[in-house]
Amino acid sequence: MSKMREAKQHDIFNAAMTLFSEKGFDQASMDGIAKLAQVSKRTLYKYFPTKDKLFETIVESLMSNFDQHLPVDFDQSTSISDQLFAILSERMSYLLEPQFIQLSRLVSVECMRQKRFAEIALAQLQTIEGGYGLRHWAKQGVEQNKLSLSEPLLAIEQLIGSIKGTCYWPSLMTHQKPVTRAELNKAIRFACDSFESAHSR
C-alpha cells in the first residue's frame, strides 16, 4: 500500500511539473493535473489540498539537492584540489540531471512572478547550511595552517558559484541540455586547481 501511495504521489508530482512548466502556475488547473496523472480529484486533494502545496513540494524537491551533506574533514595527506574534486564531483552530480534543470527553471520563473513563492523558496533555502559540507573542511584547513582564507565560508560559496556559472546557469537560462559528466568534471577540476593555487599555504 505504501508503494502504491508513493507511486500516485510521484505521478501527481510529475504531472504538476509538466503542466506548471507548459502553462504556468496560474493557468494550470488541479483538474488538469489529476487528468494527466490519471488519478481521481479525490486522490489528488488527499495528497495535495491546494496548488500552493504542490508548489511547496516542488521547491522541497529542488532544495533537497543542496541539503543532507555531512561535514567533511580536511585531509592533510591529500592535495587540496584532489580533496575538493572528490567531494564536489559526487555532491554536484545533480547538475547532470534534466529533471533538476526543469525544477530549477520552474521554481525560478514562478518566484519571479509571485512574491509568495519567492518567500516559500527563501524560507526553505534558509534552513540549509549549504557548502556541501565543505564549510567545516575549510575551517579545519585554516586551523591546520594549510589554507589561507580570511573568509572561509565566502571562499567556498565562490568556489561552488564558479562551477555553477559554467555548468548550471547556461542550461537554466538558455534551455541547453545539462552538461555531460566530462564537462562537469573538467569545470570542477579547473575550479579546484584555481582554489588550491589561490589559497594553499
TrEMBL record:
A Pfam family reported for this protein in Swiss-Prot or TrEMBL: TetR_C_7
Organism: Vibrio ulleungensis
DNA-binding residues (ranges): 29-48
Keyword DNA-binding: yes
Coiled coil segments of this chain: none
Residues covered by the HTH tetR-type domain: 6-66
Keywords assigned: DNA-binding, Transcription, Transcription regulation
Name listed for the protein in its UniProt record: TetR/AcrR family transcriptional regulator
Phylogenetic placement of the source organism: Bacteria, Pseudomonadati, Pseudomonadota, Gammaproteobacteria, Vibrionales
